[in-house]
């Protein structure tokens, strides 16, 4: 199954997680319009209801820009950490975002979420300059997270991080 989800229809679906491959790169960027590094698994697309069900994986240190989109989304944290709106969210925690400005979301140790988008689109609308100026608010708890936060912050500032 590719990010092009036009072949899915409004019907019953039962899938094992391993039946759907992770996707990344340009197709994912077209789907979500986010900075690179995000992976997705599309489980269902219902054109009639304008609904997309997917898993999204954010690497350690990733910052999802403050954004809006022409839809709403419900998010359930499955693994890792999502830090937003002053809350350190863990597996089982929930976020709702509508067609209003929300975020930024920080993923200091990486995160996997299940998301349902419903509405006119999944593309995020965000200010690149504001994103590039973002200063992390949350500290990583893992070594991979600390490395990821440093690399992502360096990428936003245009500098390089030396390897230890």
Give a description of the structure:
With 164 residues, the chain is of the alpha+beta class. It has a single domain, classed as Jelly Rolls (Sandwich). The chain has helices spanning 26-32, 128-132, 143-157, and strands spanning 39-46, 51-58, 62-64, 67-68, 71-80, 82-84, 87-89, 94-97, 105-107, 111-119, 125-126. The strands form 4 sheets. The protein has a 5-stranded antiparallel beta sheet with strand order 1-2-10-5-8, with no helix packed on it. A hairpin with a 4-residue loop joins β1 (39-46) and β2. The longest helix has 15 residues, at 143-157. Mean pLDDT is 89; it is low at 1-5.
Please give the share of residues in helix. 10-25%
Give Rg in angstroms: 16 Å
CATH homologous superfamily caption: Jelly Rolls
CATH class: Mainly Beta
| Secondary-structure class | alpha+beta
Main-sheet strand order equals 1-2-10-5-8
Task: Summarize the helices and strands and which ones pair or pack.
Blueprint: H1 26-32, E1 39-46, E2 51-58, E3 62-64, E4 67-68, E5 71-80, E6 82-84, E7 87-89, E8 94-97, E9 105-107, E10 111-119, E11 125-126, H2 128-132, H3 143-157
Antiparallel strand pairs: 1-2, 2-10, 3-9, 4-11, 5-8, 5-10, 6-7
